[in-house]
TrEMBL record:
Record membrane topology: Multi-pass membrane protein
Ranges that cross the membrane: 26-48, 54-72, 84-102, 114-147, 159-178, 198-218, 225-244, 264-285, 317-335
Domain of life: Bacteria
Alphabetized UniProt keyword annotations: Cell membrane, Hydrolase, Membrane, Protease, Transmembrane, Transmembrane helix
Taxonomic lineage of the native organism: Bacteria, Pseudomonadati, Pseudomonadota, Alphaproteobacteria, Sphingomonadales
Cited InterPro entries: EpsH-like, Exo/Archaeosortase_dom, Exosortase, Exosortase-1, Methanolan_biosynth_EpsI
The Methanolan biosynthesis EpsI domain, residue ranges: 319-509
Main localization of the protein described in the UniProt heading: membrane
Location in or out of the cell: Cell membrane
UniProt EC number: 3.4.22.-
Name by which UniProt lists this protein: Exosortase A
Pfam families linked: DUF3485, Exosortase_EpsH
NCBIfam families per record: 8TM_EpsH, EpsI_fam, exo_archaeo, exosort_XrtA
UniProt-recorded Gene Ontology molecular function terms: hydrolase activity
Length: 520
């Protein structure tokens, strides 16, 4: 609907004044948002630090500005709606609070931060109503892009990039051998490291694609094609970038090629790719520049929304009171859950294993898993009669929470900022998680990881978090044990065979872990 200049279609703000029907609801919303920022300040500060300090998330600094612009685009249509508190918004607010609580009790930062953002979004239907929320549906959903996500995709993207790179390397006539994310060429050994996974550009491209699809297109088919391009193109482009580095290294050497990669590709290559995507989509833009972002006539005539507004109308004062009660409840529950502590033995020991004896721990390259916040940690080496060795790492936690997460980032077999790099996934045994690691381009290590929590025995970090959530929601204290069996490659029997023999000798895995956790 075009603006006719009538009072009914005036923007929400005239100069510095606000349309009368919007003044009090906006004040209530602003007060609730201020409260949410204060109550969940630690989560917001953690997100801002990630936006600022981690290059993967630098683009998220711009998302709040984009949000303001998206709402400003809709200001004239919004002025024609009457804000009113809704009980459905209260249900959404309670769901967002529960999401934050689940993240809080499990130590899952991503879920906790998503809950904090969802609380902001749920405040809109709660205090401004369903029609206003329908008009602001895209800006509210777009808030998801201020939540720092994507690190979970790094290993998969490393593997995909490595396969694209080796295919292009072979196609260009360069002899090369791939081993996980490492590519060996005549010019040297190259690693598709985490920084080379392309996750940074992929997340930014997805955020851009979703925005452009909404602003520039009306056709859902064209929107889908753009989003597909924003997903596929950066992944392929990153493979080309990695191949370009390897190809250049064959000519000018690895040092010059690496510098060229960081300076030229890092600053220009992806900017060119983004520009090409925009230029490719430009001619297909089908939203007229003067067209409003909201079909206000259809929104006002929608009978479902009208019926829901009548039935779910809620007193704003009651809505705010119930919000305060929900916030107090989840904060208190999270505090109780975070301070749960199961009783632990004064000390733990590595048990005897038939056919295996304890020997001095002397790895070719020092390897020590990280288990921050655990009360007990053991690292030792076993050898059998033939001299075959297996390394055992055990960490015991009285509970899981902030700063003591067995499956947290950087915890476990691969410790950040060491000489060890992730090489590839490996087949897990007995529900464990297998990983292959490489140090100094020459020492390979296989690691099998398990978590033990109550009746759970699994190598899945997600399953551990779900078990911890169940414990803490029930305010039940359970200890958590992290077990890693590992072995270096290069001995007479390969690492997988040695770990399998050690496991067979140690007996049932759950019982063996429980014996260690009990101090026996």
């Amino acid at each position: 609907m075009a603006d006719t200049g009538s009072a009914g279609s005036a923007p929400i703000m005239r100069g510095l004044a606000i349309v009368p029907g919007w003044r009090v609801p906006l004040v209530r919303l602003g007060a609730l948002w201020l409260l949410l920022f204060v109550v969940f300040a630690s989560d917001w500060m953690a997100m801002v630090r990630q936006w600022w300090d981690i290059s993967t998330y630098n683009h998220m600094i711009l998302i709040p500005i984009v949000e303001v612009w998206l709402v400003w685009q809709r200001r004239r249509e919004l002025a024609q709606l009457e804000p009113a508190a809704s009980a459905l918004g209260l249900v959404l607010f309670a769901g967002a609070a529960l999401l934050w609580l689940l993240g809080g009790v499990s130590g899952f930062d991503l879920v906790r931060q998503a809950g904090a953002v969802a609380l902001l979004a749920a405040s809109v239907p709660l205090l401004l109503g369903l029609r206003v929320s329908a008009a602001l549906l895209f800006p509210l959903c777009y808030l998801v892009f201020i939540v720092p996500f994507g690190e979970e995709m790094v290993k998969s993207l490393q593997t995909i990039t490595a396969h694209i790179t080796i295919a292009l390397t072979h196609a260009s006539g360069i002899p090369a051998v791939i081993d996980g994310v490492f590519i060996d060429t005549p010019a040297g050994l190259f690693e598709v490291a985490e920084a080379c996974s392309g996750v940074k550009f992929l997340i930014a491209m997805i955020a851009f694609g979703v925005l452009a699809a909404n602003v520039c297109f009306v056709s859902w088919r064209r929107r889908g094609v753009l989003l597909l391009a924003c997903l596929v193109v950066p992944i392929l482009a990153n493979g080309v970038r990695a191949w370009g580095t390897i190809y250049a290294a064959q000519i000018v050497g690895t040092r010059v090629a690496a510098g060229f990669d960081h300076i030229v590709y890092g600053w220009f290559f992806f900017a060119i790719v983004l520009a090409l995507v925009i230029l490719g989509a430009w001619r297909f833009f089908d939203r007229p520049s003067e067209a409003p972002m909201i079909d206000i006539a259809a929104l006002r005539a929608n009978r479902v929304l009208a019926r829901a507004e009548r039935r779910m109308r809620l007193s704003p004062v009651l809505a705010l009171a119930l919000c305060l009660a929900a916030l107090a409840g989840v904060k208190l529950w999270a505090y109780r859950g975070d301070h749960l502590a199961a009783p632990l033995p004064a000390r733990i020991v590595l048990p005897d294993v038939p056919g295996w004896t304890r020997v001095p721990y002397a790895p070719s390259v020092w390897w020590e898993p990280l288990a921050q916040g655990s009360e007990h940690r053991l690292l030792g080496r076993y050898a059998d009669a033939s001299g075959a060795t297996v390394d055992v790492f055990v960490a015991l936690y009285s509970g899981q929470g902030e700063g003591r997460e067995a499956g947290g980032f950087g915890q476990g077999a691969l410790t950040p900022e060491t000489s060890w790099s992730w090489q590839s996934s490996a087949p897990g045994i007995e529900q464990g998680r297998g990983e292959r690691l490489l140090a100094e381009g020459r020492v390979e290590r296989l690691a099998q990881t398990w978590y033990r929590n109550g009746g759970l025995l699994s190598g899945s970090n997600l399953e551990l978090k779900l078990a911890v959530i169940a414990d803490q929601m029930a305010l039940r204290a359970e200890p958590t044990t992290l077990l890693i069996l590992s072995a270096e490659e290069g001995e007479r029997h390969d690492a997988a065979a040695r770990i399998a023999r050690f496991r067979a000798a140690s007996g049932p895995l759950a019982s063996w872990i429980d014996r260690i956790a009990a101090g026996r």
